[in-house]
Design goal:
The chain has 2 helices and 7 strands; from the N terminus they run ββββααβββ. It has helices spanning about 55-60, 70-80, and strands at about 1-5, 10-15, 30-35, 40-50, 85-90, 95-100, 105-110. The strands form 2 sheets. The protein has a 5-stranded antiparallel β-sheet with strand order 1-2-7-4-5, with no helix packed on it. The chain has a two-stranded antiparallel sheet with strand order 3-6. The longest helix is centred in the last third of the chain and has 11 residues, at about 70-80. The chain is elongated and about 50 Å long. The chain starts with a strand and ends with a strand.
Length: about 110
Amino acid sequence: MLVTKAKDDSLVIAVWNLVNPGSTGSPRTMRLDFKGVSPDATASIARVDGQHGDTLKLSDKLGKPRYPTQAQIQQLRRESALKSPEERHLEEGRLELELPVNGLTVIQVR
């Protein structure tokens, strides 16, 4: 986990559940307890994992081209574009997250 403060004084936290290549892992549930923020503060949650922004699955779908065409590159960019962050409120200063295998989540708490 990595925690820092943004210029606007919001907290930015990165959490991940990475495994070594060729290894298997399991999803993890993580509970974050916040102090010094409103107990119902807003959390913006951005994810990169197998369901969010994963270009490897898309490349596999295209047959793992060694030299992708411009059309394939555009398709990879379009289909792996990150969605807007999920907005949730802390519950009594807590946030619970599910982290899939090889998932990275960045949380901004305001």
